[in-house]
Automatic annotation (TrEMBL):
Pfam families: GFO_IDH_MocA. Keywords: Signal. InterPro entries: Gfo/Idh/MocA-like_OxRdtase_N (IPR000683), Gfo/Idh/MocA_oxidrdct_glycsds (IPR050463), NAD(P)-bd_dom_sf (IPR036291), TAT_signal (IPR006311). The keyword Signal applies. SUPFAM superfamilies: Glyceraldehyde-3-phosphate dehydrogenase-like, C-terminal domain (SSF55347), NAD(P)-binding Rossmann-fold domains (SSF51735). Residues 50-169 form the Gfo/Idh/MocA-like oxidoreductase N-terminal domain. It comes from Chitinophaga lutea. This is Gfo/Idh/MocA family oxidoreductase. GO terms for molecular function: nucleotide binding. Residues 1-29 form the signal peptide. The keyword Transmembrane does not apply.
Amino acid sequence: MMSNSRRKFIRQLSSTAALLGAGSLGAFAADPTKQYLLEPSRPVSANDKIRIAGIGMGIMGFGDVNTALKVPGVELVAVADLYDGHLEKARSVYGNHLFTTRDYREILERKDIDAVIIATPDHWHDTQSIAAMEKGKAVYCEKPMVQQIEEGHKVIAAQQRTKAVFQVGSQRVSSVALAEARKRYLAGDIGQLNLVEAKIDRHSALGAWQYSIPTDANPKNIDFDTFLKDTGKVPFDPVRFFRWRNYRAYGTGVPGDLFVHLITGLHFIVGSKGPSNIYSSGNLVQWKDGRDVPDVMVAIFDYPATKEHPAFQMTLRVNFADGGGGGEFTRLIGTEGVMEMGWNDFKVKQHKLPVAPGYGGWDTYNTFTRKEQEAFVKAYNAKYSEADRAQAKTTEAAYRAPAGYDDRYDHFVNFFEAMRNKKQVVEDATFGLRAAGPALAANESYFSKKVIHWDSERMKIK
């Protein structure tokens, strides 16, 4: 029987699901596994033109801008970056009319810019997000929302104070696949959740953040001092600039870059506010290139029982030294099934136990005398009906978005719809800190070598 709290949560879900465009499901193949094709959201109409700017034009910056421009009615006005080569690249891609600058503050002063995409190194996210909101700009900020937990509270306060549209860029929460996964979870398809396990393993230099460094990198075409911000002063170093993810001073390591994706998706599916205890361990195994963060990390998160979900444990693993070639999975395991997540697809495998426990096999029944075995079987059959004694049932259903589907596009659609129609964003600053906070706490656990006790309601380390 469904609890009142679950009914309430499903009612709360309905408006968000409509925004995400989960749509109806249609079978697309005759197969022992039931398969369903998820319908993406309906086409977007360009009501009001929205003018955007990109702050930070690295890998994510170009990727985000390219995706945002696919949304009808969106126009790129300006970009900011500390490397002149990125600005030159932007002009060659988007046109020489583009305003370019090293100083992001010049962008915030422009009246012809409605929204900014912040895709800078993690240690700049809070400062630029707050400054943009205070200047009346809507903000799409890449994950993790912040580098330090206390910075997250300042971003939340700024969003509440300015009433600005602010969305974190963990795009999976806008995926039609995650919207349907949440429906399937709330419908009880896997029974009672008790364990979540996920891994992202890689075995490549680029996968381990050894990104290419341009041959022309020098102090004249890179504003390295500004990049450093308030971190310790060091001589010009293009490695730190282009591979900033490898350094605690500028990035957030494995947890902030990868764990946060997994945490965000989980929180969206089950409606969680976060864990209560966090412990992580790891090592620097293969990529000893000057980085000061591990390339192998395992973290355990204890989630307490709440009105939204039962108590469960989550284990996350990242291994950049996987000699098997890498691979990834995310599994939500329940008492009656398992949900295996892909990126824009997932499977639900159900294995429902019969009411009767069975006998024989590896069992004490075989140690009984013949007379006792006969008595046991008679009593067993009297207690359990034929239906109760039926074998465990195993079923499988697969759900996927259509070929070419892009969840990042839907995430930008949600962001711009919030601007145009005053809708609630999918991932606001509070949601962003509830995902980033446990990831950052995993870093704290690793470096302090202790269990971190997390207050998920107040979003603080206890």
